[in-house]
Amino acid sequence: MFNHQFSSQWSLNAGLHYTKGDGYYQEYKIGRTLVEYGLKPFIQNGEEISWSDLVRKKAMENGFGGGIFSVNYRNNRLNTTLGGGLNHYSGHHFGQVLWVKNYTEMLEPGQEYYRSKGTKTDGNLYLKADYKLTNTLNAYVDLQYRHIDYRIKGTNDKWNTVTNDGLQVLAIDEKFDFFNPKAGLSWQIDQNHRLFGSFSVAHKEPTRNNYTDGKLWEHPQAERLFDYELGYTYANSWLNVGANLYYMDYKDQLVLTGELNEIGEPIAANMPDSYRMGIELMAGIRTDFGFSWDVNATLSRNRIQNFTETLYENEDINGEQWKINHGDTPIAFSPDFILNNLFSYQYKQFDVSLQSQYVSKQYMSNAHQEAHVLDAYFVSNLHLSYSFKLPMIKSATIGLTVYNLFNEKYENNGYAGSGFYYDNGEKVRYNYAGYAAQAGTNVLGHLSLNF
Description:
Elements: E1 2-5, E2 10-33, E3 42-44, E4 47-49, E5 51-74, E6 78-100, E7 111-132, E8 137-159, E9 167-188, E10 193-204, H1 208-213, E11 223-235, E12 239-260, E13 266-286, E14 291-312, E15 321-330, E16 337-347, E17 350-359, E18 362-363, E19 373-374, E20 377-390, E21 393-403, E22 411-423, E23 426-437, E24 442-450
Antiparallel strand pairs: 1-2, 2-5, 3-4, 5-6, 6-7, 7-8, 8-9, 9-10, 10-11, 11-12, 12-13, 13-14, 14-15, 14-16, 16-17, 17-20, 18-19, 20-21, 21-24, 22-23
């Protein structure tokens, strides 16, 4: 790190960084096709065996390094920064077969069945400024240019179900150039009232999972967002309230589809046109006798426009397709209403709080199917703690948290999908879903010591 103050108005900050990472996990897989792991069938009791149980290891080795800088200027009216950074990531993903049940052929120690290397060079340059137009009116602008060079070469850990001749080949070579401007005004009407508004453009490149886990014939695109916001706050010594209106207009938003990859991670796909709009409300009360109340809520509408769903016969991607246009549909995992409430009380060294959350009904896919619904739920957690002093330490806190206080039976996540089959020559849709059931009432105790 390097910091230098040239004068009361000018300063410079710079830094270099590097992070080395390694990791792996192992899985016992049941009834796997051996050819997917580069293994030959074997003979058992005079019969050729082409699948078996096995243990596989998936691992990665990566490094991430680069540098950042900023030059800052400040006077009575203007606060501005010119900065940027250049970062490079390099990572190897690879898999090994450690053991195969009843296997009679040669199995090399740590036999590798796939490997890919990904590199990402990310450079950005930005200029941001905050200017006091009057004593009560501020304008700000933030301009960023970003360039990304993104490459993935090698083999994926998934079988190529289109050509059916080996693992999927990864040959990603992408370059992205993004311009992300943001501008806004803030008006401090008086000591208590403030009004603000902003417009911004943001872009986001696909992640590695978007390239490796999506449909083989679907090439992920970068997202683009136009964000419009208008807000108001009121604050005094005991009360603060606020409201924020927003409209987020997306192009090629990467939206969760409800499907999972082989290791249970959610899969996303581009939606050509979508939006999120709503209002965020918040309020807080502080009293002189230790009680406080904080509440916030979001009422929103989150929609994909003119959504066309593609179903596959018996979920066979090489089989017949059925395209269904649903019009405007809710975005997956996007509830229309969320409410958070917190009651807190502090008396001397004792703290107690009750935190509650309500989440409305939401869909786990984008096809607006009632069979894919996560029901609304309301969950509360109670927290109790007491702080005291002990010899030779600054303070100690003992506490107890009761999660899901009222033993709500609910699911807050899951997966969903659909397919179709023929019945007497007619196409019949079927839906399926899985749910992540959450724990009932459970208790966590803790002790914290501050030396």
